[in-house]
């Protein structure tokens, strides 16, 4: 034991804690020479915390609660140097022992494409909902996902849509004969969760062009929530262990609905035997970053956003565009935020539904980045809220992008958005 740390062996894995557990205790010398992932044990309220995440600094090794402070990069010298090196190499996973099934994590291998310890197999993905967004999204996956996707399963209540997209997308082919394209394969409903990633693109209640006089995304919530609840419960019944990706609007609220509804038993009591919070991810922020980049490119004095800027929050009201994480300028940030929030209305004013950029920037490209373990924008669980931010999925769990410094004005705005979703 060192610095009030305890080391244990359980299921042939190394566990780390700052309090006593009833497992076989090990020496620090043994722990220091251990080559695998170390699991740091925490005890947090399941409703407000993930079952696991990648530890990025000693400040989030043993946390009291999940909140926005996890976006701050803090470092002290209280830990042994070998353990800090493990954390820096993303070889430590925080585990919440208050989840009834936490121990199954010890034998789970994430099928991440990149990473030293990753599983190199390609992912099978299932796309449900073949409307404007779903059809465009699978086109992007077919064109760009050959190196990381083994097959694209599709499902829609309309069989004609499934037949159409099976024909259309399987006929997308490069003249280069050795280029790989994942096949498009129609499924039956009882086959939907035989995959590594389930992608929800069903959407009802989308206002007609010219009829939008309020937040278009929120207008879809009631109808889409009923459908995502159905599929999240189906995921629970199927004991689904992959990624449950939500592309339909509003992604943040639908993610939370999927989490809550899948974790209720037949009596509507929470048992936390459904989808884990870290399994569920919302894909709406990628296009907001792309739109902010588009507007930032129009003025020379705003172009620093392309390298220094970040997007946070939801795909709609509450969005925050920060022009720079190094030298935050509130005036520029507010301008980019407002332009970005209203970008979809500009397309609608032209007489078109704005679905192409969202389907590709938030959808195809961000989903592929997730599979490859690359940085991207998505909404991920943080203290009871699905908060949009840059993150990546590693073999050790989800890593949030952290910052040495966050401007006080910016942090207050982030906190306001965060609180509005609690």
TrEMBL record:
It comes from the Bacteria. Pfam families: Ldh_1_N (PF00056). Residues 125-270 form the Lactate/malate dehydrogenase N-terminal domain. Gene3D superfamilies: NAD(P)-binding Rossmann-like Domain. InterPro entries: Lactate/malate_DH_N, NAD(P)-bd_dom_sf. Transmembrane segments: none annotated. This is Lactate dehydrogenase. It comes from Clostridium tanneri.
């Amino acid at each position: 034991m060192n610095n009030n740390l305890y080391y244990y062996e359980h299921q042939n894995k190394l566990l780390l804690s700052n309090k006593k557990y009833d497992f076989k205790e090990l020496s620090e010398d043994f722990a220091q020479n251990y080559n695998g992932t170390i699991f740091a044990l925490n005890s947090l309220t399941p409703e407000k915390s993930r079952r696991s995440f990648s530890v990025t600094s000693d400040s989030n090794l043993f946390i009291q609660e999940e909140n926005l402070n996890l976006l701050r990069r803090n470092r002290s010298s209280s830990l042994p140097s070998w353990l800090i090196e493990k954390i820096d190499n993303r070889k430590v996973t925080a585990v919440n022992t208050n989840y009834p099934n936490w121990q199954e994590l010890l034998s789970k291998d994430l099928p991440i494409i990149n990473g030293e310890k990753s599983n190199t197999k390609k992912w099978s993905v299932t796309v449900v909902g073949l409307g404007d967004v779903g059809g465009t999204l699978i086109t992007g996956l077919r064109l760009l996902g050959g190196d990381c996707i083994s097959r694209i399963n599709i499902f829609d209540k309309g069989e004609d849509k499934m037949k159409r997209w099976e024909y259309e997308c399987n006929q997308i082919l490069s003249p280069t004969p050795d280029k790989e394209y994942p096949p498009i394969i129609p499924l039956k409903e009882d086959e939907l969760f035989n995959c590594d990633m389930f992608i929800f693109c069903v959407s009802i209640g989308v206002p007609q062009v010219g009829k939008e006089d309020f937040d278009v995304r929120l207008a879809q919530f009631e109808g889409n929530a009923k459908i995502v609840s159905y599929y999240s419960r189906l995921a629970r019944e199927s004991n689904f262990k992959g990624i449950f990706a939500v592309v339909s609007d509003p992604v943040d609220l639908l993610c939370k609905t999927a989490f809550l509804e899948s974790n209720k038993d037949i009596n509507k009591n929470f048992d936390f035997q459904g989808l884990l919070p870290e399994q569920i991810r919302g894909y709406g922020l990628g296009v907001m970053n792309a739109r902010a980049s588009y507007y930032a490119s129009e003025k020379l004095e705003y172009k620093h956003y392309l390298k220094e800027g970040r997007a946070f929050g939801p795909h709609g009201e509450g969005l925050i565009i920060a022009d720079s994480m190094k030298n935050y300028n509130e005036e520029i940030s507010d301008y980019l935020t407002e332009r970005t929030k209203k970008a979809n209305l500009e397309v609608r004013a032209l007489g078109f539904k704005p679905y192409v950029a969202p389907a590709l920037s938030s959808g195809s490209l961000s989903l592929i980045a997730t599979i490859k373990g690359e940085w991207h924008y998505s909404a991920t669980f943080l203290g009871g809220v699905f908060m949009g931010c840059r993150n990546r999925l590693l073999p050790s769990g989800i890593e949030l992008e952290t910052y040495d410094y966050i401007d006080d004005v910016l942090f207050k705005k982030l906190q306001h958005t965060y609180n509005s979703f609690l």
